[in-house]
Design brief:
Distance between the termini of chain B: 56 Å
Helix content of chain B: 25-40%
Chains: A alpha/beta, B alpha/beta, C alpha/beta
Oligomer: heterotrimer
Strand content of chain C: 25-35%
CATH architecture of the largest domain in chain B: 3-Layer(bba) Sandwich
Bound molecules: flavin-adenine dinucleotide, adenosine monophosphate
Structural class of chain C: alpha/beta
Distance between the termini of chain C: 58 Å
CATH architecture of chain C: 3-Layer(aba) Sandwich
CATH superfamily of chain C: HUPs
Number of domains of chain B: 3
Largest sheet of chain C: 9 strands, mixed
Strand content of chain B: 25-35%
Radius of gyration of chain C: 24 Å
CATH superfamily of the largest domain in chain B: FAD/NAD(P)-binding domain
Number of domains of chain C: 1
CATH class of the largest domain in chain B: Alpha Beta
């Protein structure tokens, strides 16, 4: 891609300045859709985050919010529908077919494009997960419409167009992207970028069941198996309430145990900055940041992390950021809430110890007495 | 199997190597050039002054597409003490001529451009390929090279060593000695990015005009050294270099030196608000004429920094590198055209061409300078700058001291610091070394 | 086997700077690299070739200087390089990029033989969308395998391929038919260092340069800015947080005191946390 376009704010004479003229056949495209990502009976939480965001868009546009559930016939699929309502959907589209049991690109793309062409949404949001990105790219290309990846902000402008804002050039800049003369306007959002909305015990909404004629024999790709990461190795980093992370400032692989110890004591997940993954000190799924996980914990403790922009974009949503760094000018102090300028290697053990003391049931009882 | 043979192999794609490779390839020789960096220029310290005249002799119309930053219209020489500078400045609109005399360039970009020219001239250029060893025949004649890539040795009639100041290959092969610590300076350098308009404004420049500051004084903490600041289009190169032997003796850290130079009140405001992007350290050969090693042998010649061809007094290096590279290339071409083998006797032509050029003439002129500055560094880099600064301040500051007393105080300070004979001696030695 | 891989030359985003006043990208001195994710795909392609025979073609769409990226790919051992370059491609978004690339791939197929596998990287570090791969697959009607961590087996006679694909919370094993498009995950392998012969060959190879017409693209309205449904309306810098971190004064304090103070600071800001933090296990 010749990326001159992203170089500068396009001049007013550019296309963005032109009059938007939506072709006649797109004019009846209405409503906001959220793809409810269902895999192995579980709804991915990013779908709820998107419903929260979709609700706001739908309200601004004065239209309905729909959840789209694609899955095998059965309880789990209907449960996903119920959950969509609980998180704010007015209605749900559901395609049930045995061949939608395991995710594969072909049947999912077919089902999704069929739904879009039949019911014509103006906005379609998907999670930027491995599944969501795989699907979104195919669907957008099939429909020949625009797709904005990894948005951090979604809004509706005065004339009802979707304004999708995303980081560009490694997070050093943000850009707002429009899909001009095509529908639907598609966007993906990474897990944990948007806040989790309140779950309501909402009565059910409308359900539209849709049939997509597909037979397994016509689907070339076969799912042979699935190996779950299990609880242990796959960090639940993105959804942890408390995260402790270490960076290059820790100096050596063995010092990572300081981070892990603290994490264990306070019941946190642990993570790291990218160089640690590159050095092989930690597995890739522990990386936090632009090319790793986005986290949104209540408490984030960063030890020996400088706070490069690519790291920062992954932790911006944390409620409380604590930084431990020897360099008082480290950029992390620009966005942390609490800072300690000290040697993390010496400090972490003390911190762990004091936390242990303070949090152990024994000492808590003593305090109560 | 690499059973191929080249007319010449050039080791290194810096200024000297590119000049040699271009000169030979454009005259129809089959040239292979090997560079260990990821691309030509990737290993070279960024931000430098490039001298047009020497490049014109190689690529006359280089201005058409070479990545040039600013042409220089102003040069400042500063003597600094800890809080002040006293200086000389020359600025002339005459430098706004159509064929500018000097430019600032960013080596990473400039070398890439130069390398493209080399390729267009027909040479084969391999990057990320380090020459590990010179191959020789039973008579000791250099016949090719071995590299760090899997594969056989590559053969050539002659090898041009343009490997820069470290010159590991040549020293390992016993062609010359490792440069002595008192003959090399270690320079550290940073690129400070600022918007073009801000640079224009701070230095009073317009439309690609550029300015250079060279500074000496207490900033080098009594070591023989020089600090510099060059304006590029959207950045400022700033650095300081001192002799390696001095660094070793004083245990000063080059990085701290640069930090305090940047924090000097006269410099700080010039780079305020900039974003530092690159930090690099590099050696500069400063031994001058007396440090020049054997320049040619059986099947090889050495050019540029590897041959210590660097004029420390005028801060010229790349022009000597380009010129020595070009002359080596021309000599090799002439030897070959005459149908003669690349023996030591025949390659002596390179040395005699070099002797006739400004390269050796200039270096000979300053042959005593390195020794002088080295042995007297405390006086030249601390005492005099401080004295000059005090004298200037004494002169400028208006108070109720009678002018005559002020002048006496200044003279007394000079004599106290260096004694009458010391002053005369320093002046005489400097004059002789300059001659 | 003919394997095609799409690579992109990108600015090394670690070194990108933003003009403080105009918020535009300052490119001066920013080196370009091959998109790091594409190198994993390239190495995988080279291994498949070494194992099954055949040739590897690299393709990029970009400005003329993207030739450097292709030459580098040749140095690593690719057999052929095609540069798709035309001013009509300027300003392409992912939809227009996948259009141009898929047309070029079709043309490469006609000229040098249809590829059995098309590789792309997982995503680029500048566009960062992971959309171009799926886009190409769709346009060429190739079966699509994204986030592939491992190619388990290829049966060239049956034209079957089995891969392990990273999915949410686990690894999926998928089998499909050739031709297909694979986007490779990072960390799967490391790019090799080409031999001296590779390097020499690369330095001398002619890179195939195609403009839109050469690639058989007739409908220019599908290219570049005109063919891009998305439009960047505004580019701006993220707003900095107003206040900096509150620093805990460290002078003359033991680590323990500091820790006490920090923890007090944490709980005073987030009182609810005190009950939520769990202590599990001793030592
Ligand atoms: C395309 C791209 C994508 C990227 N994606 C990511 C990403 O997703 N996530 C990510 O994290 N990075 C990412 N990066 C890398 C990012 O730019 C930074 O290089 C990286 O975050 C720096 O990691 P660090 O803070 O651990 O190391 P450094 O920047 O080296 O910082 C180490 C810090 O530790 C401090 N320190 C040193 N010793 C001690 C001590 N004893 N005690 C306390 N502090 C100490 C130092 O003062 C320094 O601030 C990406 C880069 C690129 C180009
Ligand atoms: C801080 C600083 C500022 C300077 N400023 C100026 C200035 O303003 N003006 C000026 O004229 N001069 C300046 N100089 C000096 C000038 O940079 C050098 O004199 C000039 O670059 C010498 O060119 P060269 O080709 O001999 O060596 P280099 O430019 O050093 O090139 C040598 C090349 O050989 C390669 N190489 C080395 N070993 C091998 C191997 N075994 N195999 C393959 N490749 C190898 C290296 O990677 C390198 O690219 C400055 C120097 C420094 C350090
Ligand atoms: N201009 C391009 N030329 C060739 N391949 C590209 C180009 N843009 C993207 N790609 C390929 O598509 C992948 C995903 O890119 P992106 O959708 O930009 O994240 C990259 O890893 C490349 O393999």
């Amino acid at each position: 891609m010749l990326d001159t376009k992203r170089d500068t704010p396009p001049p007013a004479a550019g296309r963005a300045g032109m009059k938007k003229e939506l072709p006649e056949h797109f004019k009846d495209y209405r409503h906001v859709w959220v793809f409810i990502e269902l895999e192995r009976g579980q709804v991915h939480p990013v779908s709820f985050e998107l419903l929260g965001e979709g609700r706001k868009l739908a309200d601004k546009l004065g239209v309905e919010l729909a959840g789209v559930v694609l899955g095998p016939p059965g309880e789990a699929t209907w449960h996903a529908v119920a959950e969509a309502f609980a998180y704010g959907a007015d209605l749900a589209y559901i395609v049930e077919a045995p061949l939608l049991a395991d995710y594969r690109n072909e049947p999912f793309t077919k089902a999704m494009t069929d739904l879009v062409e039949t019911y014509k949404p103006e906005v379609l949001l998907l999670g930027a997960t491995t599944l969501g990105r795989d699907l979104a790219g195919s669907v957008a290309t099939t429909l020949l419409t625009g797709l904005t990846a990894d948005c951090t902000e979604l809004d509706v402008d005065a004339d009802g167009s979707l304004a999708a804002t995303r980081p560009t050039f490694g997070g050093s800049l943000l850009c707002t992207i429009y899909t001009l003369n095509c529908r639907p306007q598609m966007a993906t959002v990474r897990p944990r970028v948007m806040a989790m909305p309140e779950r309501m015990n909402k009565p059910v909404g409308r359900v539209i069941q849709h049939e997509v004629p597909m037979v397994e024999e016509e689907i070339v790709t076969k799912a042979l198996g699935f190996l779950s990461d299990g609880q242990s190795s796959n960090a639940n980093l993105a959804y942890a309430d408390v995260v402790v992370a270490g960076g290059l400032g820790l100096g050596a692989a063995e010092n990572l145990k300081l981070v892990k110890n603290l994490a264990r004591v306070i019941g946190a997940e642990y993570g790291c900055s990218r160089p640690l993954v590159q050095k092989g000190w930690m597995p890739a799924d522990r990386q936090i940041g632009q090319t790793g996980k986005t986290i949104r914990p209540k408490l984030y403790i960063a030890a020996g992390i400088s706070g490069a922009i690519q790291h920062r974009v992954g932790v911006g949503g944390a409620d409380l950021i604590v930084a431990i760094n020897t360099d008082p000018n480290a950029p992390i102090f620009d966005f942390a809430h609490l800072g300690v300028v000290t040697d993390a290697i010496r400090f972490l053990p003390s911190l762990t110890e004091v936390f242990t003391h303070r949090l152990s049931p024994h000492s808590r009882d003593k305090l109560a007495n | 199997m690499t059973e191929e043979k080249f007319d010449a192999i050039v080791i290194g794609a810096g200024m000297a190597g590119n000049a040699a490779a271009y000169t030979m390839a454009s005259r129809g020789l089959k040239v292979l050039q090997l560079e260990r960096g990821e691309y030509p220029g990737s290993k070279n310290v960024q931000g430098a002054i490039m001298y047009s005249n020497m490049l014109e002799k190689i690529i006359p119309d280089f201005r058409d597409d070479a990545p040039l930053e600013r042409h220089l219209i102003e040069q400042r020489f500063w003597m600094m003490d800890d809080t002040s500078h006293i200086g000389m400045q020359y600025r002339s609109d005459d430098f706004n001529e159509s064929r500018h005399n000097r430019y600032t360039v960013i080596r990473a970009q400039f070398d890439k451009w130069f390398s493209r020219k080399v390729r267009e001239a027909g040479a084969t250029v391999l990057c990320e390929t380090t020459v590990t060893e010179l191959a020789r025949d039973s008579d000791g004649k250099v016949i090719g090279v071995l590299t760090d890539r899997t594969g056989d040795m590559i053969l050539a009639d002659v090898v041009v060593l343009a490997e820069g100041v470290n010159g590991l290959l040549g020293t390992r092969a016993g062609l010359r000695e490792t440069p002595k610590p008192q003959n090399v300076a270690l320079a550290v350098k940073e690129m400070h990015f600022l918007p073009e308009e801000v640079i224009d404004q701070r230095f009073g420049l317009k439309a690609n005009e550029g300015c250079v500051i060279e500074a000496a004084g207490t900033i080098s903490r009594s070591m023989a050294g020089l600090a510099f600041l060059y304006t590029n289009k959207e950045s400022i190169s700033i650095g300081i270099g001192c002799l390696v032997s001095d660094f070793a003796a004083t245990m000063e850290s080059p990085y701290e030196l640069l930090e305090s130079f940047k924090n000097h009140p006269s410099i700080r405001t010039l780079i305020a608000g900039s974003e530092v992007k690159e930090y690099a350290a590099h050696l500069i050969p400063e031994g001058g004429y007396r440090a020049i090693p054997q320049l040619f042998g059986n099947g090889w010649v050495v050019v540029g920094d590897a041959a210590q061809l660097n004029n420390a007094v005028h801060r010229e290096g790349s022009n000597l590198a380009m010129t020595s590279g070009r002359l080596a290339g021309e000599a090799i071409f002439l030897v070959r055209k005459g149908g003669r083998p690349m023996t030591k006797e025949n390659l002596a032509l390179y040395k005699s061409m070099l002797d006739k050029s400004f390269v050796i003439k200039d270096l000979r002129k300053y042959k005593d300078m390195p020794a002088l500055l080295h042995t007297n560094s405390r006086n030249f880099f601390t005492t005099y700058p401080q004295l000059l600064s005090q004298a200037a301040q004494n002169f400028m500051r208006v108070d109720s001291t009678p002018k005559l007393d002020k002048e006496r105080a200044t003279t007394a300070a000079f004599i106290k610091a260096r004694s009458r004979w010391g002053l005369v001696g320093d002046a005489v030695r400097l004059a002789f070394a300059w001659r | 086997m003919h394997i095609l891989i799409c690579i992109k030359q990108v600015p090394d985003s670690a070194q990108i700077r933003v003009h403080p006043v105009t918020n535009t990208i300052m490119r001066q001195g920013v080196p370009t690299i091959i998109n790091p994710y594409d190198l994993f795909a390239l190495e995988e392609a080279l291994r498949l070739r070494d194992c099954h025979g055949g040739e590897v073609t690299v393709l990029t769409m970009g400005p003329p200087m993207a030739e450097d990226a292709l030459r580098k790919a040749l140095t690593y051992g690719a057999d052929r390089a095609v540069l798709l370059t035309d001013r009509y491609f300027a300003g392409s978004d992912t939809l227009a990029t996948s259009f141009a690339l898929s047309q070029a791939i079709a043309k490469i197929g006609e000229t040098f033989g249809a590829p059995d596998i098309v590789f792309t990287g997982k995503q680029t570090i500048d566009g960062d969308t992971a959309q171009v791969g799926p886009g190409i697959a769709k346009r060429l009607d190739l079966l699509q395998l994204t986030y592939v961590a491992k190619i388990v087996s290829i049966d060239l006679d049956a034209r079957e391929i089995t891969v392990e694909r990273r999915s949410e919370g686990g690894t999926q094993t998928l089998m499909t038919k050739l031709p297909c498009l694979i986007t490779m995950l990072e960390g799967t392998n490391e790019i090799r260092r080409g031999s001296l012969d590779d390097a020499l060959r690369a330095a001398r190879s002619q890179i195939v340069k195609w403009n839109a017409a050469d690639a058989g693209i007739e409908d220019l309205t599908k290219c570049g800015l005109r063919g891009s449904p998305t439009v960047v309306k505004r580019v701006f810098a993220p707003t900095a947080r107003a206040e900096k971190a509150e620093q805990i004064d460290t002078t003359e304090k033991t680590s323990r005191d500091l820790a006490e103070e920090l923890i007090a600071g944490i709980f005073s800001r987030q009182p609810a946390l005190e009950d939520e933090l769990a202590f599990d296990g001793d030592d």
